[in-house]
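Retry 2 of 3 after timeout on previous attempt. Resubmitting structure tokens to design endpoint.
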């Protein structure tokens, strides 16, 4: 029998314009500006721009620029990227100081790529791109994905099967309460009609509670303490849909707080995939004022991937280290988990 195969390379391209207003007000070496998150090829990206150069430049006469992979469902993402200064005049000379490369981005090993010496201050002034103290930077990303298809002939003659709707059907069960056999009571005023078999299938803790020899396994109603009703509602949504509700795609303080509480609840009910999803969402919100708290959370609930990202995040920039260790949340972290301070020191030494 002859096996027929074919391969396909799929390119997903996107552009992002990053505008810096009042460019001359940015002072200090290693001070950086971050763009909004943008999506290309199913992944989130962000631009990190150092107007006066990063810690690896010899002086502050060059700017530095990088593109960073913010999330990934794969081990590595291969992408081509390029940066250039965009002339503000529509019919002027267009793109200037353009450079690019192809690289493999990975969350753990190498999340960002770029150039330490992007453009000198003298060349920036001469370029004419700094009109009215505003600078426009264009970043182009092309994500490269390949796929091997076995038995081309059989594939062409196959029956087309629509996507699974199991998640939607389970979600309807929760919304309609059809044949619900268990009531979960939160506090004294909130209750949810659920299906014990779904909870048991999704959480080892609920499985032991509802299918074991404990008293609760014989009851049609159980009470859950120390969990906020809104957090438990999101937990149920995930159990039935295998995803989070749309409102949690936002990055408001309320959504971040919800993610933090959901991570704790996911740990309580041994739901490891949900716990990793929460870690990924918290990773995207990292900044100096929140790093201490998130690192504390990662240490307390054994979130090793989130902890590693926090350590890499703080070690990448000396100014970021100084800003972080001055916060009250970081001082609290040193009190609760002294070993983390040594982990940070080790990571900084490795970067030298």
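Retry 2 succeeded. Sequence:
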């Amino acid at each position: 029998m002859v096996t027929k195969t074919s391969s396909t390379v799929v390119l997903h391209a996107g552009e992002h314009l990053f505008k810096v207003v009042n460019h001359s007000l940015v002072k200090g070496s290693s001070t950086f500006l971050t763009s909004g998150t943008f999506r290309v090829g199913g992944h989130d990206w962000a631009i990190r721009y150092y107007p006066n150069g990063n810690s690896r430049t010899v002086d502050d006469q060059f700017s530095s620029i990088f593109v960073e992979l913010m999330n990934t469902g794969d081990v590595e993402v291969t992408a081509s990227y390029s940066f250039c200064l965009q002339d503000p005049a529509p019919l002027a000379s267009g793109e200037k100081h353009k450079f690019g490369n192809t690289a493999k981005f990975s969350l753990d090993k190498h999340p960002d790529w770029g150039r330490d010496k992007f453009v000198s201050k003298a060349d920036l002034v001469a370029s004419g791109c700094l009109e009215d103290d505003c600078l426009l930077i264009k970043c182009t990303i092309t994500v490269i994905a390949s796929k091997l298809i076995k038995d081309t002939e059989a594939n062409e003659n196959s029956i087309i099967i629509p996507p699974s709707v199991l998640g939607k059907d389970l979600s309807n069960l929760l919304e309609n309460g059809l044949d619900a056999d268990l009531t979960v009571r939160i506090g004294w005023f909130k209750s949810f009609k659920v299906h014990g078999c779904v909870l048991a299938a999704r959480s080892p803790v609920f499985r032991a509670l509802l299918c074991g020899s404990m008293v609760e396994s014989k009851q049609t109603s159980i009470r859950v303490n120390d969990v906020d009703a809104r957090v438990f509602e999101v937990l149920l949504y995930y159990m039935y849909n295998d995803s989070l509700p749309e409102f949690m795609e936002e990055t408001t303080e309320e959504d971040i707080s919800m993610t933090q509480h959901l991570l704790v609840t996911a740990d309580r009910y041994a739901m490891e995939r949900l716990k990793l999803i929460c870690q990924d969402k918290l990773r995207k919100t990292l900044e100096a004022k929140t790093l201490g708290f998130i690192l504390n959370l990662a240490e307390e609930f054994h979130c090793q991937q989130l902890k590693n990202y926090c350590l890499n995040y703080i070690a990448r920039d000396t100014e970021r280290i100084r800003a972080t260790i001055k916060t009250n949340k970081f001082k609290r972290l040193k009190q609760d988990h002294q070993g983390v301070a040594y982990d940070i020191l080790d990571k900084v030494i490795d970067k030298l």
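Attempt log closed. The longest helix spans residues 253-268.
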